Amino acid sequence: MHARHLFLALMLASVPLTAQQQPADWILYNGRIYTVDANRPLAEAMAVRDGRVIFVGSRRGVEALAGNRTTRTDLEGRTVIPGMVDAHVHLAGLGAALRRVDLVGTRSYLQVVERVAERARTTPRGEWVTGQGWDQNDWADTRFPTMEALSRAVPDHPVYLTRVDGHAALVNEKALELARVTAATPDPDGGRVIRDANGNPTGVLIDRAQGIVSRVIPSPARSETREAILAAVREANKWGLTGVHDAGVGPEIIDLYEELAQDGRYDLRNYVMISSGDQTLDRYFARGPQAGLYDGRLWIRSIKISSDGALGSRGAALLEPYADDPDNRGLVTTAPERVRAVAVRALRQGFQLNVHAIGDRANRLVLDAFESALTEVPTSDHRFRVEHAQILHFQDIPRFAQLDVIPSMQGSHQTSDMYWAIDRLGWTRVQGAYAWRTLLNTGVVIPNGSDFPVEHPNPLISFKAFVTRQDETGWPAGGWFGGERTTRDEALKSMTLWPAYAGFMEDVSGSLSPGKYADFVILSQDIMTVAPERILDTHVVMTVLGGKVVYRRQQERT
Fold first, then answer.
1. For the chain, is the Cβ count within 10 Å smaller at the N or the C terminus?
2. In sequence order, which residues have a C-beta less than 8 Å from that of residue 466 and are 6 or more positions away?
3. What topology does CATH give the domain 247-486?
4. d(CA 460, CA 538)
5. What percent of the chain has pLDDT over 90?
6. pLDDT tens-digit map of 85-120
7. Are domains 108-214 and 247-486 of this chain identical in fold?
8. How far apart are alpha carbons 12 and 215 in whole angstroms?
């Protein structure tokens, strides 16, 4: 034997038991484990030590890792998947929404007014009443409401009610009075005050016009915001989320995230997209990209910009006018020159840029800005993202792969919008709406999400949407433009491995592979095989983050 080989053999013989042979902290067996790891896609058992997966495979293999202090869990045939990750959320917004008047699912403007009036009766006179989630497209009269009924019912409290997409607000007369909004108040850049025939505000504010009133709403105390964030984290865990990508976060909220993580109270992996103001950019560029802070709780290495509004409020920027509003092409809320300038800075500083774009005009402008920035600062692995990418011109679909840009999309947006999207876009343009299959066929990945609190935080809603393109009743038969459906394997990746890739985290999360974080979810039934109409009957039995149980359903025995 060659002397060098002999030396290596002797060294290896003297090494103690390998890490894999040391006892596990926890073994789970007798389950159906979807690993999202191509090397072992399906297994029956798994072992965890020090917050990491150390083995995935057979019952025989996992038993070899059991020691005297090892916790053992018989899965009793239940399904295990990697911890789900929502690739586009507003975490602090969810915390705030849990305290507001819930208007989601209201079927009329009258119902909105009744809910707000009920809250006002228990709110001290003069204090603000806020709510979130109304959608006029769900009402018999789909026109924007006006404030008269709200002002009559709640005359002594200023009221601010955010539309379901967050891109419009309804306010009452008292709120306009406090904000000093009159017929003479001009529309801000990137926003619009809806007015009556005489030019008077009707109470609806679109996109940046919301700031005219929202700026006078008193900010909650820092302690209240901290508790709201903790409530949002608990809510996320309840639905099987171990990670989120948090869009457009300012320094004050990030500071709270860091405090909670330092205190060991932050049971979530948050890939933070910082807001794009110059002072915020300067602060975090000086600090540099941050990855896996506080035992993998925070990543601070990306930026969020919004380039247009939303389709439901007719603020999405379109190449041609709205089919149901011929004088309107939507709103460009950030100039393309600004997107390009931030993209150049991001590339030079090692940050990712993620831009909200819903309309086909906004998507084209963003792709153009990305292309120009990448020409100036060539970068091989930038992973720039378009957030939502809802309506695409057919000429722009191949550009995502050509520019290595990730379309980050939300399945539940499609099932929420499909009832009226054709009205907004017409038959031709709607062919490029929520085009998941067409985009996947170009070679990109699509991280999935909910945009909560715009949509419900349950990630299985978007999983089902990817698979069926149907609502909870199974409408429409065959799915809304059913050719754009994904497979279940793709839908599972869209909530696990693809968000990990989109956040530069694929080496440590996204699949149940040895060496990665032990982030996983135990489900009440197998979402990969159950009938499509039963997917949403699935319950989260347990959510595990880094080997620690962060949610357990009380009704279940595990």
1. N
2. 411, 436, 448, 485, 486, 490, 491, 494
3. TIM Barrel (3.20.20)
4. 8
5. 94
6. 999 999 999 999 898 999 999 999 999 999 999 999
7. no
8. 66
